[in-house]
Amino acid sequence: LKNQLLTDHGHNPLMKKVFDVYLCFLQKNQSETALKNVFSALRALIYKFPSTFYEGRADMCSALCYEILKYCNSKLSSIRNEASQLLYFLMRNNFDYTGKKSFVRTHLQVIISVSQLIADVVGIGGTRFQQSLSIINNCANNDRIIKHTTFPSDVKDLTKRIRTVLMATAQMKEHENDPEMLVDLQYSLAKSYASTPELRKTWLDSMARIHVKNGDLSEAAMCYVHVAALVAEYLTRKGMIS
Length: 242
Prior knowledge:
This is DOCK9 protein. By secondary structure, the chain is an all-alpha fold.
């Protein structure tokens, strides 16, 4: 079924069903042994069907990054290590797929997933997660094949960006009972990603949820109008609307 699975760069109903099975294993509680086998199977899937994750739509790459990053915060050090290495493999494979030019697709989806996880997972960004970031950095620094490329410094830049987001979130936690200060911090973070529409949208959505929670509906509406403008501008640049 390989040819069918590769149709439209892997964005077809059959691949979606196969991928959803893999994703289900990550989303349900598994034993340590089962998870290690799932991680191994995912490596094989990524290796055999790279275009599914690095070409066309980003939904599968996004979903995979989100689930792997959750395991980077696992209480079990062995699972954190396996998850970190799988995430590194996803980035490294992306780099190879582009002819050793960049891993922009995975880089962006990891940052977006971290931003989403902050709101969804309690304790993300603690010591366990920081250790996983260090494992990823070490993998890049010790990979001799790509030692003289931009990859190690790009990985370092990614982990640095993640830590910046986590620090900003820690500040937000300190001011969670001060709605105005909290929104100001959210706005600053959204503004810092002006060149990355997907990330700016993520934080504007988060700002809107805070406004709705506080009953500031007109402010929430402004956030959504801004999001709509971002999407329209992006689609116009892509030539999808005029």
